[in-house]
C-alpha cells in the first residue's frame, strides 16, 4: 500500500494510546507505542540499579536495551531481555521515574533511532504515538495530530484507568508533574506548524476515534 504514517502526540491522559490503537486497527496499520519504549528503558535501568542521574549510564543502557515490542494493535506486549514487562512498566515506580530517563538526551537519540527503524521496517504504514512524533520522529508523516483534552478530562480518564484507587490530589500530582518534567525536552502542549489539533474533552472514545479517521481520510 501507499505510505501512511499517522503521528499522534499529546499529554498523559489525553486518550492517545487507546485512540491510536483503535485507529490503527480500523486502518489496518501497524502501531507503535513510543511511551512504552521509555517505560521499558526505565524498567531496565531500575532493574540494573543504574543511577538515573548518570546520563552516560542511561544512554549506554538505551543502546544495549534488549527490547521486544508488539507492533500489532491487537496484541500488546513488551519484553526486556526475554522478561515480559507489559504490566510492570505501568506501575507507579515506573511512571514516577520515566521523565528522568526521557529527559536524558543521549537515550532519546537512541530510542528515536529505533522508532524510525520500526517505521521503515513497516514500510511507512504505521500509527506512531508519543510526545515528539509529529515534530522530531516523523515530521514528514502523512497525518500529524495533537490529541489534547482539558486538565479535568485528563485527570478523570487517568483516574478511571488506574481503577479509581487514587485521590484527586494524588492524580493531579502524578499526571501534571510528569507532563511538567517531560515538557522540559519535548513540546506536546502546542501543535507545531501543519499539525492538526483534536480536542477530545467533550468527545467519548468512539467519537474521538471517528474524528481521527475523518482527518486521515481527508488527506488520503
Ligand atoms: O505515553 P506514556 O505516558 O506511556 O509515556 C511515558 C513517558 O515516556 C512520558 O511521560 C515521557 O517521559 C516519555 N515519552 C517521551 N517521548 C515520547 C513518548 C514518551 O519522552 N515520544
From TrEMBL:
Domain Cytidylate kinase: 6-217
Sequence positions that bind ATP: 10-18
GO molecular function, one term: kinase activity
Superkingdom in the source lineage: Bacteria
Substrates-to-products reaction catalysed: CMP + ATP = CDP + ADP; dCMP + ATP = dCDP + ADP
Pfam families (alphabetical): Cytidylate_kin
Main location: cytoplasm
Compartment list: Cytoplasm
Keywords in alphabetical order: ATP-binding, Cytoplasm, Kinase, Nucleotide-binding, Transferase
E.C. number(s) listed in UniProt: 2.7.4.25
InterPro entries registered for this protein in UniProt: Cytidylate_kin, Cytidylate_kinase_dom, P-loop_NTPase
Family stated for the protein in its record: Belongs to the cytidylate kinase family. Type 1 subfamily.
NCBIfam families per UniProt: cmk (TIGR00017)
Protein name according to UniProt: Cytidylate kinase
Organism: Arthrobacter nanjingensis
Amino acid at each position: 500500500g501507499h505510505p501512511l504514517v499517522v503521528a499522534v502526540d499529546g499529554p498523559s491522559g489525553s486518550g492517545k494510546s487507546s485512540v491510536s490503537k483503535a485507529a490503527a486497527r480500523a486502518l489496518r496499520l501497524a502501531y507503535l507505542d513510543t511511551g512504552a519504549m521509555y517505560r521499558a528503558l526505565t524498567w531496565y535501568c531500575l532493574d540494573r540499579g543504574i543511577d538515573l542521574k548518570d546520563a552516560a549510564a542511561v544512554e549506554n543502557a538505551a543502546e544495549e536495551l534488549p527490547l521486544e515490542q508488539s507492533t500489532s494493535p491487537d496484541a500488546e506486549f513488551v519484553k526486556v531481555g526475554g522478561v515480559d514487562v507489559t504490566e510492570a512498566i505501568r506501575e507507579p515506580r515506573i511512571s514516577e521515574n520515566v521523565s528522568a530517563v526521557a529527559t536524558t538526551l543521549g537515550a532519546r537519540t537512541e530510542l528515536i533511532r529505533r522508532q524510525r527503524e520500526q517505521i521503515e521496517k513497516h514500510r511507512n504504514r504505521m500509527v506512531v504515538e508519543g510526545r515528539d512524533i509529529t515534530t522530531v520522529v516523523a515530521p514528514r508523516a502523512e497525518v500529524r495530530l495533537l490529541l489534547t483534552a482539558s486538565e479535568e478530562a485528563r485527570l478523570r480518564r487517568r483516574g478511571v484507568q488506574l481503577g479509581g484507587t487514587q485521590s484527586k490530589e494524588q492524580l493531579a500530582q502524578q499526571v501534571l508533574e510528569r507532563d511538567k518534567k517531560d515538557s522540559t525536552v519535548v513540546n506536546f502542549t502546542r501543535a507545531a506548524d501543519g499539525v492538526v489539533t483534536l480536542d477530545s474533552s467533550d468527545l467519548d472514545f468512539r467519537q474521538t476515534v471517528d474524528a481521527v479517521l475523518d482527518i486521515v481520510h481527508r488527506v488520503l
